[in-house]
C-alpha cells in the first residue's frame, strides 16, 4: 500500500533469492559500488534495498531548515573571543551535538586537495584499488565497501578508503600513491584542529583545557575517504545508514554535493549543507560515555543521490587500534548524587568489537554499556 506523498516502489524479493550469495559475489569483485556503476548497472542489487519501514522514513520530505550552527574559530587565542566561542559551543552541544567550524586554520588549498586526492584513489585503476581491498578490520590501510556488509539490513551505496594515521603509523609507503602526500599533510592539520576543539570542549565542561588530551582521546585517528557514486535508484537505498559514530570526535570534510542529514532532537532529519572551507564537527559515542550524556552523540545519515560522485573525508579520533586495556567511564568530576554514572567502564577495543558486530542502522551501541 502506498503512503501519502511517498512513491510506491516495488521491493518484493523472491523467496528463492540468495542474498548471501549475491553479497559474496559483490564482495569478491573487490570493485565496490563504483564497480557496479562502471559496469552500467541500472537496477541496484537487492541487498542494497532498504526494508519497508526504512523506505517510508527515507522518502518522507525533510522540512526546509537553515542548517546546523556554524562556529567561527577565528581569534580563538584571544581570551575575550575564546570565552565567546566556548559559550557558543556549549549552546550548540546542548541543542544539536553537531556544528560546523570555519576559520579553523587549514588552508583552502589543503581542503581542496584532500577532496581531489580521495577522488583520485577511488577513480584509480582497478588493479591499484584491489590491492588495498580487505575486510580485515585490523588492517591499517584498507579499501572496502560496507565494513558491515554481512551484518547490515541493507548495504550502503558507498565505498571507503580507511587509513589509520595514529598510533603506530606504518609510514607513508603504506598509503596509496594517488593520495599519499595529501593524507600525510591533512593528518597533521587534523591533529592541530582536534587539539583546539578538544581543549574548547574541556572548557565547555568547566574543567581544564587539557582534560581530553590527558585522557588519551587524541592518541589515535583514522582518515576515512568516502566515495558515493551516482545512484540509479536513490529512492530505495541509502548512502550511509542512520548511525552515531564510534570514537570520541569526528571532523568531516564534505564536497559541494551535500546529502548529510542529522536527526535533530530524535525527531526531525535536518540537512547539513556544505559550507565552503568549513569542517563538520560531531560528538561521537565515547565522548558521550565519558561526559555521562553531557555531550550527545547524534544520529546521522547520508542520502543516496542521482548526482555524484559525492566525496567526503572523515577524521575519527579513536584509539580502537591500540592494544590498550585502559578503561573509560564517566569523568569523576562530572558525577554527583544527582548525576550518578550512566555507563559502566569499558575499553575502547571492547566497545568497537560490539559496534562492528552490530553494524550501522540499528540500536546505538551505547545502550549495551549502560549501568
Structure description:
With 371 residues, the chain is α+β, with helices and mostly antiparallel strands. Helices cover 29% and strands 18% of the residues. It contains ten helices and 14 strands. It has an eight-stranded mixed sheet with strand order 1-2-10-7-12-5-4-3. α4 packs across α7 and α5 packs across α7 (180-204). The model is unreliable at 1-7 (pLDDT under 50).
Structural class, by secondary structure, is alpha+beta
End-to-end Cα distance, whole Å, is 42 Å
Q: What portion of residues belong to β-strands?
A: 15-25%
What is the residue-mean pLDDT, rounded to a whole number?
91
Radius of gyration: 20 Å
Shape: globular
Largest sheet, strands/sense/barrel: 8 strands, mixed
Total number of beta strands: 14
H and E order: HHHEHEHHEEHHEEEEEEHEEEEH
Runs with pLDDT <50, length 5+? Answer: 1-7
What proportion of the residues is helical, as a percent range? 25-40%
Strand order of the largest sheet: 1-2-10-7-12-5-4-3
Please work out how many helical segments DSSP would assign: 10
Amino acid at each position: 500500500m502506498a503512503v501519502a506523498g511517498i512513491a510506491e516502489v516495488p521491493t518484493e524479493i523472491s523467496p528463492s533469492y540468495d542474498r548471501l550469495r549475491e553479497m559474496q559475489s559483490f564482495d569478491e569483485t573487490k570493485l565496490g559500488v563504483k564497480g557496479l556503476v562502471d559496469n552500467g548497472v541500472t537496477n541496484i542489487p537487492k541487498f542494497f534495498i532498504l526494508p519497508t519501514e526504512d523506505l517510508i522514513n527515507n522518502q518522507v520530505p525533510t522540512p526546509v531548515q537553515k542548517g546546523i550552527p556554524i562556529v567561527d574559530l577565528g581569534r580563538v587565542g584571544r581570551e575575550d573571543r575564546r570565552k565567546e566561542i566556548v559559550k557558543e559551543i556549549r549552546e550548540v552541544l546542548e541543542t544539536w551535538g553537531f556544528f560546523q567550524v570555519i576559520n579553523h586554520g587549514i588552508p583552502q588549498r589543503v581542503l581542496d586537495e584532500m577532496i581531489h586526492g580521495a577522488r583520485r584513489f577511488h577513480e584509480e585503476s582497478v588493479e591499484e584499488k584491489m590491492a588495498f581491498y580487505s575486510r580485515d578490520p585490523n588492517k591499517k590501510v584498507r579499501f572496502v565497501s560496507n565494513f558491515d556488509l554481512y551484518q547490515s539490513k541493507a548495504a550502503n551505496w558507498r565505498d571507503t578508503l580507511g587509513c589509520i594515521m595514529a598510533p603506530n603509523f606504518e609510514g607513508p609507503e603504506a598509503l596509496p600513491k594517488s593520495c599519499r602526500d595529501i593524507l600525510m599533510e591533512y593528518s597533521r592539520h587534523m591533529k592541530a584542529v582536534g587539539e583546539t576543539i578538544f581543549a574548547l570542549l574541556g572548557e565547555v565542561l568547566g574543567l581544564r583545557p587539557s582534560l581530553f588530551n590527558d585522557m588519551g582521546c587524541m592518541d589515535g585517528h583514522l582518515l576515512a575517504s568516502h566515495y558515493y557514486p551516482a545512484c540509479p535508484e536513490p529512492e530505495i537505498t541509502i548512502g550511509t545508514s542512520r548511525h552515531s559514530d564510534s570514537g570520541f570526535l569526528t571532523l568531516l570534510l564534505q564536497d559541494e554535493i551535500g546529502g548529510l542529514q542529522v536527526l535533530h532532537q530524535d525527531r526531525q532529519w535536518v540537512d547539513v549543507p556544505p559550507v565552503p572551507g568549513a569542517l563538520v564537527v560531531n560528538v561521537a559515542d565515547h565522548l558521550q560515555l565519558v561526559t555521562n550524556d553531557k555531550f550527545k552523540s547524534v544520529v546521522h545519515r547520508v542520502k543516496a543521490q542521482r548526482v555524484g560522485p559525492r566525496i567526503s573525508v572523515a577524521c575519527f579520533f579513536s584509539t580502537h587500534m591500540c592494544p590498550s586495556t585502559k578503561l573509560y567511564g564517566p569523568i569523576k568530576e562530572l558525577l554527583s548524587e544527582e548525576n550518578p554514572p550512566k555507563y559502566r567502564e569499558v575499553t575502547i577495543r571492547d566497545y568497537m568489537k560490539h559496534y562492528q558486530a552490530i553494524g550501522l542502522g540499528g540500536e546505538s551501541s551505547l545502550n549495551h554499556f549502560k549501568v
